[in-house]
Protein backbone atom coordinates (compact mmCIF):
# COMPACT_ATOMS: atom_id res chain seq x y z
CA UNK A 1 0.00 0.00 0.00
CA UNK A 2 1.26 3.47 -0.91
CA UNK A 3 1.98 5.70 2.09
CA UNK A 4 0.34 9.12 2.06
CA UNK A 5 0.62 12.16 4.29
CA UNK A 6 -2.28 13.86 6.01
CA UNK A 7 -1.64 16.99 3.93
CA UNK A 8 -1.71 15.04 0.65
CA UNK A 9 -4.90 13.24 1.71
CA UNK A 10 -6.63 16.54 2.54
CA UNK A 11 -5.52 18.13 -0.73
CA UNK A 12 -6.75 15.16 -2.75
CA UNK A 13 -10.05 15.00 -0.87
CA UNK A 14 -10.64 18.74 -1.28
CA UNK A 15 -9.93 18.60 -5.03
CA UNK A 16 -12.20 15.58 -5.49
CA UNK A 17 -15.05 17.27 -3.63
CA UNK A 18 -14.80 20.41 -5.78
CA UNK A 19 -14.76 18.36 -8.97
CA UNK A 20 -17.67 16.17 -7.87
CA UNK A 21 -19.85 19.00 -6.53
CA UNK A 22 -21.66 19.67 -9.85
CA UNK A 23 -22.50 15.97 -10.21
CA UNK A 24 -24.25 15.90 -6.85
CA UNK A 25 -25.90 19.32 -7.15
CA UNK A 26 -29.63 19.53 -6.62
CA UNK A 27 -31.91 21.12 -9.23
CA UNK A 28 -32.05 24.31 -7.14
CA UNK A 29 -28.26 24.67 -6.95
CA UNK A 30 -26.46 27.08 -9.31
CA UNK A 31 -23.71 24.46 -9.79
CA UNK A 32 -25.88 22.80 -12.44
CA UNK A 33 -25.04 25.77 -14.69
CA UNK A 34 -21.37 24.80 -14.66
CA UNK A 35 -19.60 25.85 -17.86
CA UNK A 36 -16.48 23.91 -18.90
CA UNK A 37 -13.89 25.44 -21.22
CA UNK A 38 -11.14 23.05 -22.41
CA UNK A 39 -8.34 24.36 -24.62
CA UNK A 40 -5.66 22.30 -26.37
CA UNK A 41 -2.50 24.11 -27.49
CA UNK A 42 -0.39 22.75 -30.35
CA UNK A 43 3.04 24.39 -30.36
CA UNK A 44 4.80 25.67 -33.49
CA UNK A 45 7.86 23.82 -32.19
CA UNK A 46 6.27 20.70 -30.65
CA UNK A 47 9.45 19.26 -29.13
CA UNK A 48 10.69 22.54 -27.67
CA UNK A 49 10.54 22.20 -23.88
CA UNK A 50 11.38 25.89 -23.38
CA UNK A 51 8.33 26.91 -25.45
CA UNK A 52 6.14 24.48 -23.49
CA UNK A 53 7.45 25.84 -20.18
CA UNK A 54 6.90 29.43 -21.35
CA UNK A 55 3.28 28.64 -22.33
CA UNK A 56 2.64 26.98 -18.96
CA UNK A 57 4.14 30.03 -17.23
CA UNK A 58 1.66 32.23 -19.13
CA UNK A 59 -1.26 29.97 -18.23
CA UNK A 60 -0.33 30.18 -14.56
CA UNK A 61 -0.59 33.97 -14.79
CA UNK A 62 -3.86 33.62 -16.72
CA UNK A 63 -5.29 31.42 -13.97
CA UNK A 64 -5.52 34.56 -11.78
CA UNK A 65 -8.62 35.77 -13.65
CA UNK A 66 -11.16 35.93 -10.78
CA UNK A 67 -14.10 34.48 -12.73
CA UNK A 68 -12.35 31.10 -13.03
CA UNK A 69 -13.84 28.65 -10.53
CA UNK A 70 -11.26 25.88 -11.02
CA UNK A 71 -8.31 25.38 -13.36
CA UNK A 72 -6.10 22.50 -14.48
CA UNK A 73 -3.00 22.83 -16.64
CA UNK A 74 -1.91 19.52 -18.15
CA UNK A 75 0.31 17.79 -20.67
CA UNK A 76 -0.39 14.55 -22.52
CA UNK A 77 -0.52 11.50 -20.28
CA UNK A 78 1.45 8.38 -21.11
CA UNK A 79 -1.74 6.50 -21.97
CA UNK A 80 -1.77 5.01 -25.44
CA UNK A 81 -5.02 3.82 -27.03
CA UNK A 82 -6.38 4.46 -30.50
CA UNK A 83 -8.96 6.98 -29.26
CA UNK A 84 -6.46 9.17 -27.39
CA UNK A 85 -5.19 12.37 -29.02
CA UNK A 86 -1.66 13.07 -27.80
CA UNK A 87 -0.48 15.60 -30.40
CA UNK A 88 -1.16 18.67 -28.27
CA UNK A 89 1.50 20.18 -26.01
CA UNK A 90 -0.58 21.68 -23.20
CA UNK A 91 -4.21 21.47 -22.13
CA UNK A 92 -6.01 24.23 -20.23
CA UNK A 93 -9.16 23.07 -18.45
CA UNK A 94 -11.36 25.73 -16.83
CA UNK A 95 -14.59 25.60 -14.87
CA UNK A 96 -16.90 28.60 -14.61
CA UNK A 97 -20.16 29.03 -12.71
CA UNK A 98 -21.96 29.80 -15.97
CA UNK A 99 -21.57 31.04 -19.54
CA UNK A 100 -21.66 34.68 -18.43
CA UNK A 101 -18.57 34.19 -16.25
CA UNK A 102 -16.74 32.56 -19.17
CA UNK A 103 -17.65 35.51 -21.41
CA UNK A 104 -16.20 37.92 -18.83
CA UNK A 105 -13.02 35.81 -18.82
CA UNK A 106 -12.77 36.03 -22.63
CA UNK A 107 -12.67 39.85 -22.47
CA UNK A 108 -10.59 40.13 -19.29
CA UNK A 109 -7.37 42.17 -19.67
CA UNK A 110 -5.26 39.28 -18.30
CA UNK A 111 -6.69 36.97 -21.00
CA UNK A 112 -6.12 39.53 -23.76
CA UNK A 113 -2.54 40.11 -22.55
CA UNK A 114 -1.94 36.34 -22.49
CA UNK A 115 -2.97 36.08 -26.15
CA UNK A 116 -0.78 39.04 -27.06
CA UNK A 117 2.28 37.71 -25.21
CA UNK A 118 2.08 33.97 -25.93
CA UNK A 119 0.22 33.39 -29.20
CA UNK A 120 3.53 33.34 -31.09
CA UNK A 121 4.22 29.97 -29.40
CA UNK A 122 1.28 28.02 -30.79
CA UNK A 123 0.43 26.79 -34.25
CA UNK A 124 -3.12 25.75 -33.48
CA UNK A 125 -5.61 25.94 -30.63
CA UNK A 126 -8.68 23.72 -30.29
CA UNK A 127 -11.42 24.61 -27.81
CA UNK A 128 -14.16 22.39 -26.43
CA UNK A 129 -16.87 24.19 -24.45
CA UNK A 130 -19.56 22.24 -22.65
CA UNK A 131 -22.43 22.65 -20.23
CA UNK A 132 -24.10 20.05 -18.05
CA UNK A 133 -26.36 17.65 -19.90
CA UNK A 134 -29.93 17.40 -18.69
CA UNK A 135 -30.58 14.18 -16.82
CA UNK A 136 -33.84 12.50 -16.13
From TrEMBL:
<feature type="signal peptide">
    <location>
        <begin position="1"/>
        <end position="25"/>
    </location>
</feature>
<dbReference type="InterPro" id="IPR013097">
    <property type="entry name" value="Dabb"/>
</dbReference>
<dbReference type="Pfam" id="PF07876">
    <property type="entry name" value="Dabb"/>
</dbReference>
<feature type="domain" description="Stress-response A/B barrel">
    <location>
        <begin position="35"/>
        <end position="130"/>
    </location>
</feature>
<dbReference type="InterPro" id="IPR019546">
    <property type="entry name" value="TAT_signal_bac_arc"/>
</dbReference>
<keyword id="KW-0732">Signal</keyword>
<dbReference type="InterPro" id="IPR006311">
    <property type="entry name" value="TAT_signal"/>
</dbReference>
<protein>
    <submittedName>
        <fullName>Dabb family protein</fullName>
    </submittedName>
</protein>
<dbReference type="InterPro" id="IPR011008">
    <property type="entry name" value="Dimeric_a/b-barrel"/>
</dbReference>
Amino acid sequence: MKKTTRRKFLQTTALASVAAAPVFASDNNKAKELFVHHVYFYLKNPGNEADRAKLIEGLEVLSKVPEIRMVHIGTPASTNRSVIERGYAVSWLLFFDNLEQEEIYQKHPIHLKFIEDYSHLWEKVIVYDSVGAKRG
